[in-house]
Amino acid sequence: MGFISDSLREALALILAGDREVFTAVLTSLDVAVWSVIFASIGGVPVGIAVALGKFPMMGAIRVLLNSLMAMPTVVVGLVVYGFLSRMGPFGSLGLLFTPQAIIIGETVLAMPVVANYTVAAIQGADERILPTALTLGASRFQSLCQLTREVRFGVVAAIIAGFGRVIAEVGVAMMLGGNIRFFTRTMTTAIALETSKGEFAFGLALGVILMSVSLAVNIFLTLAQESHSA
Amino acid sequence: MKLKLALAALAVASLCSFATAEDHLKMSTTTSTENSGLLTVLLPPFEKECGCKVDVIAVGTGKALKLGETGDVDVVLVHARGLEDKFVAAGFGINRRDVMYNDFVVIGPPNDPAGLRETTSAVDAFKRIDATHSTFISRGDNSGTDVKEKQIWSAAGITPSGAWYRSAGQGMGEVINMATELRGYTLADRGTYNAFRHGKTDLVILYDANRGLERPGAPAPRLTVDQVLARAGANGLLNPYGVIAVNPKKFPWVKFDLAMKFEDFITGPEGQSIIANYHVQGDPVFFTFKEK
Q1: Do domains B22-101+239-284 and B103-235 have the same CATH topology?
Q2: Domain ranges in chain A?
Q3: Nearest residue of chain B to residue A85 (CA atoms)
Q4: For position B103, what pLDDT does the model report?
Q5: CA-CA distance, B126 to B138, in Å (whole number)?
Q6: Residue A115 touches partner B, C-beta closer than 8 Å
Q7: Chain A hits for B56, Cβ within 8 Å
Q8: What pLDDT is stored for residue B228 in this prediction?
Q9: Is the pLDDT of residue B83 over 70?
Q10: Touching check for B21 and chain A: CB below 8 Å?
Q11: Is the distance from CB of A152 to CB of A123 less than 8 angstroms?
């Protein structure tokens, strides 16, 4: 197929040439994805722990809600956050719409349920005796929770990787909240959407190849980090 | 607790970057101005002059104006005169100025199943498409081109419906792609069509206001606005672009001074000469009003 081989060749040429357009889109993608995953983890991991260990009523409902939030379409997240950030919305005076910060907020909302859910799974899969053991050994409630999280760090890192996957790949939030502004809020995915709309299919696919390579590199890094810590 | 800290950190981080950001002029515009590549040559000289960044949000004209109506952008560059006048009349925008124009063309497959080559007006062309139930792809996104298309249908006294009429809800480029794949007709602005006609689509112009002037393979003739208007006749295939500053009385936060500097620039000698001299593969894309 000429189309596929053309785009692979183009991808290689773009990488070798250090094309500014591509380079800034990659950086913007990574920048917003990393920040949103950090914020999503700070919020999502404790929520996940609370949901996994909580013994108060409505827990079932909260889990169903978390699962549904994972399936939330990115454009819906984009739309809701847009409503808050628009000048006509409650946080309009901050002037955040169409900035990288807006994308970070939207993607944080997107990634948090993913991180929380995977954390729930990790905690539920942990040895049930960790918490009581730590408590009997004299650890405080907080210390024993930290110990539990340390024990399941493999699963927590998996949760973070899943969150990263969700945000690096999405286009709805980045398009709606960032506005696809060249050299400012244009990410890899919005650039691909733009090139497709211009009929530049090979160039779009080339960007796709680069995006995949970047995610691969990030995931290799995270997996190595995961393994070196659990060894 | 951690959640609260995270939210606080998020707010602080966002505010910090906001405070340190350089001066940004937010402009919503149509996909045609960005996809044609014009903005990549037009904006850098202005950004240098004003020491600012122009943030371009490229959407359909309808949405571009909506962004102005909520005060989310500082200036709009669009092409739907009727909507623009309403926008100004409602007090959302002020100081509308003409920037440039091109014209709309009806494109379709070279075998021309609806027989548009014999037609003499856009209205008649649309009547033939309806009569033969030939596939027609509509933008369906309330863009300037979409508004123009609806005007022609209504002038023809037709409410298009049926399987042959497909409302895509997408940008001009996507619609040309779709029409190419489905062997259908569509209404396009000449700029975007010119950007696609070298290798991206095999659809040809089957009706335009220059009927009789074009020779195969030759670049589009450079018509004055009067000529296009005269040739377009009652069809009004003229596609004028206007720039409008968002009203600072309505939205005190907009960067009105910067918006006016931008208006002065693109309607001034430097901006106008960049527009007039901008070509895609030898074809002019936009024409300026001050013809010599």
Answers
A1: yes
A2: 2-230
A3: B72
A4: 86
A5: 12
A6: no
A7: 181-182
A8: 60
A9: yes
A10: yes
A11: yes
Helices (H), B24-159: 31-35, 38-50, 61-69, 81-89, 122-132, 144-155
Per-residue pLDDT, averaged over B39-68, amounts to 93
Q: How would you label A51-90 residue by residue, b for 16+ Cβ within 10 Å and e otherwise?
A: bbeeeeeeeeebbeebeebbeeebeebbeebbebbbbebe
Query: What's the rounded Cα separation, in Å, for the pair A107 and B129?
Result: 45
Q: CATH homologous superfamily of domain B22-101+239-284? A: Periplasmic binding protein-like II (3.40.190.10)
pLDDT at A119: 95
Determine, for residues A182 and B53 on separate chains, whether the beta-carbon distance falls below 8 Å: no
Q: With an 8 Å Cβ cutoff, is A43 touching chain B?
A: yes
A&B contacts, CB < 8 Å: 83
B82-89 mean pLDDT: 94
Centre a 10 Å sphere on the Cβ of residue B198 and count the other Cβ atoms it contains: 11
Q: Is A79 on the interface with B (CB under 8 A)?
A: no
**Chain A residue numbers touching B3 (CB-CB < 8 A):** 42-43, 46-47
Q: Which residues of A touch B171 (CB under 8 A)?
A: 197
Non-local CB neighbours of B130 within 8 Å, separated by 6+ positions: B156, B158, B160
Domain A2-230, CATH number (from 1.10.3720.10, 1.10.10.10, 3.30.930.10, 3.40.50.300): 1.10.3720.10
Q: Confidence band (pLDDT; 50, 70, 90) for B234? A: very low
A104 touches chain B (CB under 8 A): yes
Alpha carbon distance A34, A15 (integer Å): 22
Token look-up 């999502």 returns A44
Look at residue B53 and give its three-state secondary structure: strand
Q: Cβ contact (<8 Å) for A197 and B35?
A: yes
**In this structure, which amino acid lies at residue B143?**
S
B196 → chain A, closest CA residue: A199
Cβ <8 Å between A198 and B2: no
Task: Write out the DSSP string of A132-182.
Answer: HHHHHTT--HHHHHHHHHHHTHHHHHHHHHHHHHHHHH--HHIIIII---T
Give the rounded percent of residues in chain A with a pLDDT score beyond 70: 98
Element (H, E) at B179: helix B172-182
B15 to chain A nearest CA, in Å?
8
ipTM reported for the complex, 2 dp: 0.76
Two structure tokens written together for B125: 């062309």
pLDDT-derived band of residue B198, with 50, 70 and 90 as boundaries? confident
The length of chain B is 292
**CB–CB contact A199 B196 (8 Å):** yes
What is the architecture, at CATH level 2, of domain B103-235?
A: 3-Layer(aba) Sandwich (3.40)
Contact status of B251 with chain A (Cβ, < 8 Å): yes
Helix axes A153-169, A100-124, angle to 10 degrees: 150
Measured CA to CA, the distance from residue B126 to residue B147 in angstroms comes to 15
